[in-house]
Amino acid sequence: MTAIESPCVKLCRIDSESDLCLGCHRTLAEIAAWGRMTPQARAAVMAQLPARQLASDRPRRGS
User: Fold this and answer.
1) CA-to-CA distance for 45 and 60, rounded, in angstroms?
2) Closest Cα to residue 3, out of 34, 28, 49?
3) What's the pLDDT score for residue 56?
4) 1-17 burial code (b ≥16 CB/10 A, e <16)
């Protein structure tokens, strides 16, 4: 089984509304735990990232 690479793109800024990193779309808890996560847990997070990215790219109400 191969390790899952980090989705970090070195654009580390947390969005105050979503509490997600604007670069990789992970939560602070996921970022902090990444090195201790099992490959299965990392894969589960990775599977959620595309949907999080799409949601964050949508215009926000009042914008």
Assistant:
1) 24
2) 34
3) 82
4) eeebeebeeeeeeeeee
Residue type, 60: R
Distances (CA, A) of 9 to 1, 5, 21, 23, 49: 24, 11, 10, 6, 13
pLDDT tens per residue across span 5-30: 899 999 999 999 889 999 999 999 99
Query: Is the distance from CB of 20 to CB of 52 less than 8 angstroms?
Result: yes
Cα–Cα distance, 42 to 7 (Å, whole number): 10
Report the predicted TM-score, pTM, of the whole model to 2 decimal places: 0.82
Place of tokens 């800024």: 13
Here the tokens at position 34 are 């990444």
